[in-house]
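Onboarding guide, step 5: your first structure request.
Type a short instruction followed by the sequence, for example:

Predict the 3D structure of this protein.
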Amino acid sequence: MKRVLIVKVTSLGDIVQALPVVADIKRAFPGVQVDWASDESFSEVVHWSESVDRVLSAPLRRFKKARRWADFKAIATSIAELRAYRYDYVVDIHGVYKSAIIAFLARSARRIGYQNQDLGERGAAFAYTGRFGPRPQCDAWHGMRVSTSEALGYVVEGPPIYNLRLPEPAKHPFGGETAPVAAFFHATSKDDKKWPLSHWAAVGRELAQRGFKVVLPWGSEGERAEAEQIAAQVPGSTVLPKMSVTEIAQMIDACALVVGTDTGFVHLAHALLKRTVMIFVATSPSHCGIHAPFRSISIGDGGAMPSIGDALEAIDYVHTESHDVALHHHDSAA
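The system replies with structure tokens like these:
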């Protein structure tokens, strides 16, 4: 096998959690080239992977919103780039119309996708010459690894390997700060996934007493207002300025601890091997949570609101000094 194309178009957390399939493929087939097709909005994340050989992207989201001629031309150019090579396999681990169209346009006789019941959009089935087996009974992230292994004929082994390398920041995200930094990702795309601001403030005060500096990133004006409400109740905390995706990633990489809801940046923290606590209020941790022994943990069951005590217990689990030897052993194995 010489070249494989992985299609996973959006979004941040899903792409981050799909990246280990590349390390799996390269372990199974030494010397294989693995390319990746994504939406332009998330292509920089794929570029951070040291395992991906070529990143193909197009402004699909932006064109859908604005219908600009420049974006249409960029999509046309990306199709030419997509078809520059012939692939032994195209593996669509997204399963919607736009990913299926990309798979169909790629030059390959073998285009593998989900079975109808597992597709995000049933019409995507037109693009595939073969199908994965039924979706395995596991979390979504391991499921993508299993499906890809079924398509290409190998067995998944070991923990996920993300293999991310961020660009060096122009300056340290926290300047001369000497205290350990804890980032709170309190904002979510949906209101039903939010954890109460009073809970964030209580956890922040406890971390401040333990010697942490709490920082609060945000993406919209509403999120900034909520961050300011939390910061007003947490001594020494800081509401960060508006930041790009890369700047937020670099900030995460400089943190000692990340606590957040089920959002892409918290998945990124996990992939960057940071000590991470993910809080689930409405979604299912068994389907899309994170876990790594003594480093990452998900709390909540998708039906009941996790308590302040639950969060502090989880922070103790990922940030206890006695766990350092086990943590180092696990991450070395990864």
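Each response can be followed by summary notes, for example: The longest strand covers residues 33-39.
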